[in-house]
Amino acid sequence: MSEARKLELVFLWHMHQPDYRDHATGEFRRPWTYLHALKDYTDMAAHLERHPQVRAVVNFVPVLLDQIEDYVRQFDAGDFRDPLLRLLARESLDNLAPDERSLLLTTCLPGNHARMVAPYPRFERLHNLFRPIAGQGLAATAYLSGAFFADLLVWYHLVWTGESARRQQPLLAELMTKGEGYSFDDRRRLLARMGDALRGIIPRYRALAERGQVELSTTPDTHPLAPLLLDFASAREAQPDLPLPQSHFYPGGRSRIDRHIALARDSHAKRFGQAPAGMWPAEGAVSGAFLQQLATQGCRWAASSQGVLANSLRRKHADSPKSPVYRPWRIEAAPGLAVFFRDEKLSDLIGFEYARWHGRDAAQHFVDQLARIRDEAPAGETPLVCVILDGENAWEHYPYNAYFFFEDLYGLIAEQTWLTTTTCSDWLARHPERTETLPDLVAGSWVYGTFSTWIGDADKNRAWDLLCAAKQAYDLVMDSGRLDDAAQRAAEAQLAVCEGSDWFWWFGDYNPSEAVASFDALFRANLAHLYRLLRLPEPPQLAVPLSSGGGSPEGGGAMRRAS
User: Fold this and answer.
1) Exposed e or buried b for every residue in 425-464, given b needs 16+ CB within 10 A?
2) DSSP 233
3) How far apart are CA 548 and CA 546, in angstroms?
4) Given its phi and psi angles, is residue 223 left (phi above 0), alpha (psi -120 to 50 degrees) or beta?
5) How far apart are CA 61 and CA 216, in angstroms?
6) How do 7-15 and 56-60 pair as beta strands?
7) What is the largest CA-CA distance in the chain?
8) Distance (Å, rounded) from C-alpha 420 to C-alpha 411?
9) Cβ of 83: how many Cβ atoms within 10 Å?
10) Quick one: how far is CA 488 from the chain centroid?
11) Is 7-16+219-438 a domain of CATH 3.20.110.10?
């Protein structure tokens, strides 16, 4: 093994949460945006701040940033539209309404007991106090005191705080040491610290970018599954027999995707001071037509997954380079755009496997895998390995929110003289000639290399048909001239929410019933609100649930393996 041989590594951390707001009321239906912000977006910034020699790409979806800024405004005003925060800020938690008790008990008793409850004995004690009456109905919960709910709320938010913050903030150490009997003043101080953490997220990542350690990228505005909005039939490029919706196509899909791209670029420039060079498409979902649109709007790079590249190379029926995933590719239909492909094995090791390992062992195994890739590369080549995954959903399955894993991983990477972390734009600037060209691209995503997670299932197809009907109504009303400019803007913004990919992700019997019910209800509420903004009656079918779920997928269903 020659020390002269090198390898370059791109980490791309994708930060995304769907829009959990009920736009008819302004209320947040679920707390996951601010919770992941407190726990994960702060921790991921802190890991990079502690390891300035490690570079990465960090991807923010505009609709996530919209929600973070919405929460910041709520903290600034002290007026909360999230029911969990409203209860945390309430002076007395005695005499809670039944629905409030239900919310606290269903939300603040996390299912991931081993990682998010058991390490904290005082929090586990609250679980044990509730266990004897669990399943006895809401009437039994009336015997739980306001002090119980105050402690439950505080502990839940302490657990959903980044490990880096817990090690740096005296208030958090004080509250965790106190352990019980939390006062209203304790909760007010905790709320103030939470507000500070949320205010700091965008500035912290902007600072990392400005010093060159991080490249910030974006995703079309509300995370739409762009190839499907352009053409449902693109799903059959990888799965020829896949059932499709009754609607033959999504009306006006091309103009809608252009709009999502333009809004994302504007959002990025406003928040981070410059336009993005690259985009991570929602779910790594690409097609030739979509990449062409990205290129036309000035994007210099995009990314997808290894399965998409493999399907495309099989269609090419020609010799391809050894280890083709370890270089970017260009697509004939999208001149000026390079496409990076994720190493599915390495990415899934971090997403699904290393949570069960000791941090140092996992870090060493990861680096050993990179060394193997380097050694197996053709002589004279420096492989480029792209590890791409969600920047939030995996860490709650790790001990201490993956704090020790990242300390070991980033620390070990920095010690390797043969290994360099880089960014997509930096690599392209240094190696403009080191790309191959695909004459044809098989449309697909980072899950199975297909679109089956979002289309093809009967429930998913019904959802697409409802969205298509709403878009047809939208087009007719917008063309009629009956709405003034403000009403048109409100309707367009609501349509964009309905076009997000996450609704379709959750439909299907393999997902948990509670999650399916939640996303199903919010999707139909969003469509109903769109009709109201268009001043049209709501179709009666929007009152009927689309999907029931009932499965128990790995990691609760928020992530899926590549294969």
Assistant:
1) bbbbeebeeeeeebeebbbbbbbbbbbbbbbbbebbbbbb
2) G
3) 7
4) left
5) 11
6) parallel
7) 72
8) 13
9) 18
10) 29
11) yes
| pTM assigned to the model | 0.97
Output the tens digit of pLDDT for each of the chain's 563 residues: 445 799 999 999 999 999 999 999 999 999 999 999 999 999 999 999 999 999 999 999 999 999 999 999 999 999 999 999 999 999 999 999 999 999 999 999 977 889 999 999 999 999 999 999 988 888 889 989 999 999 999 999 999 999 999 999 999 999 999 999 999 999 999 999 999 999 999 999 999 999 999 999 999 999 999 999 999 999 999 999 999 999 999 999 999 999 999 999 999 999 999 999 999 999 999 999 999 999 999 999 999 999 999 999 988 655 567 779 999 999 998 999 999 999 999 999 999 999 999 999 999 999 999 999 999 999 999 999 999 999 999 999 999 999 999 999 999 999 999 999 999 999 999 998 888 899 899 999 999 999 999 999 999 999 999 999 999 999 999 999 999 999 999 999 999 999 999 999 999 999 999 999 999 999 999 999 999 999 999 999 999 999 999 998 988 889 999 98
Under 8 Å between Cβ of 232 and 247: yes
Report which of 397, 414, 451, 422 is spatially closest to residue 237, judged by C-alpha positions. Answer: 451
Q: Which of 340, 334, 333, 307 is nearest to 237 (CA)?
A: 307
Place of tokens 């697909």: 444
Q: What token pair was written down for 334?
A: 């999208």
